[in-house]
Amino acid sequence: MEHYTKKTFPTTQSIGFMLTKARNMVLADMDAALEPLDITSQQMGIILWLSRGVAATPFEMSRHLSIDTGLMTRMLNKLEAKGLLKRTRSNTDRRVVDLKLTRKGEAIAANIPDMALPVLNERVRNFSKTEFKELLRLLGKFIDADTQR
């Protein structure tokens, strides 16, 4: 089903515009909230994935966070310079780089929910529980549409 046509393509009501605007608003709020931890919202994603064991290599991290490898390398460089993570060569495959949080990185990871949850809750404060569940369902459906092709 085609929801957009040349005649009915409103730039400020397109899904691309609205998703980008929503993302940018959340990122700006999140960056401000995370400032005391000296990390950005993008760096937060890396720290959380590492702390939760979701990804352990730059490649896995890039895939999970939908970040290109060049940007991932730059972000890992910054996190390593801040003493939040270590990169080491895999013992089983020297081509693979393993990522691990330092103690300082683990401490930051433990503090992230205290900073991030109020930002997210503020953004969805006017949603009922039912609306919030529906938003998550619809976003999931939107994201999964890419894997259905």
From TrEMBL:
Q: Which residues form a coiled coil?
A: none
Which superkingdom, per the lineage? Answer: Bacteria
Q: Where is the HTH marR-type domain?
A: 12-144
Q: What PROSITE patterns does this protein map onto?
A: HTH_MARR_2 (PS50995)
Is Transcription regulation given among the entry's keywords? Answer: yes
Give GO MF terms, alphabetically: DNA binding; DNA-binding transcription factor activity
Q: Which InterPro entries match?
A: HTH_MarR-typ (IPR000835), WH-like_DNA-bd_sf (IPR036388), WH_DNA-bd_sf (IPR036390)
Q: One Pfam family name from the record?
A: MarR
Keyword field: DNA-binding, Transcription, Transcription regulation
What PANTHER family does the record point to?
A: TRANSCRIPTIONAL REGULATOR, MARR, TRANSCRIPTIONAL REPRESSOR OF EMRAB OPERON
By what name is this protein known? MarR family transcriptional regulator
Which organism's genome codes for this protein? Dyella dinghuensis
